[in-house]
Amino acid sequence: MKKLRITEFFKDFDNLRKGYVSESQFRRVLDQTGVQIRDEEFNLLVQKYKRPDGLVDYKTFIDVINTVFTTKGLEKNPTLRISQMDPNSTLAARRKFFDLNEEEQKKFDELLQGYRSEISNRRILLKPLFQDFDRGNLGHISKNQFLRILYQHHIMPSKDYVNLLLKKYTDKGNLDEVNYYDFCRDVDLYEDD
């Protein structure tokens, strides 16, 4: 992924270099740079960076983005120690969830409640079963492996519910890798990480 200098795009709309633009200009810059966000996400950004006069403070927005790459004012304090990124600090940005609508969420909650009671009553330890397939201990296994374990232990839901499970626990943006850590955390009341 290339590092965009998003500041240059904003300068086209801010001739006086004041550091703020209108909402529509802010949206246009995001579109020009190829940043694809939903309307809800855009509205949250505008809400966070909107000034009392209705303009969007893009300078603060850019400063927040740039904290990923460097620390502001580093040239004034060259002996400052900067902590390095680790996989856990970027996890939230790498996870891509499929959204459930209200009806699906209701069905999903019912399904989880059924799983919780079934696993508790039968005293099934799911996590070790999934870990047998996860040699690298990454927290993800294939969809087929996930479904095989559910089937072998007679806790396989109907086809509609299978799709809900996959939609909820495939957080890499595809339907092939299932996050069994989150699944175990949600259904096993005695699960400890």
Description:
- By secondary structure, the protein is mainly α.
- Helices cover 50% and strands 5% of the residues.
- It has helices spanning 6-11, 23-32, 39-49, 58-66, 91-94, 102-122, 126-131, 143-152, 159-169, 180-187, and strands at residues 20-21, 56-57, 140-142, 177-179.
- It has a two-stranded antiparallel sheet.
- The protein is elongated and about 70 Å long.
- The model has no long low-confidence stretch (mean pLDDT 80).
Measured as a percent range, the helix fraction is: 40-55%
Radius of gyration: 23 Å
Main pleated sheet: 2 strands, antiparallel
Distance between the termini: 33 Å
Order of helix and strand elements from N to C terminus:
HEHHEHHHHEHHEH
* DSSP, total strands: 4
State mean pLDDT (0 to 100 scale): 80
Regions with little confidence, pLDDT below 50 for 5+ residues: none
Portion in strands: 5-15%
Instruction: List the total number of helices.
Output: 10
Shape: elongated
Q: Helix/strand/pairing class, anyone?
A: mainly alpha
Strand arrangement, major sheet: 1-2
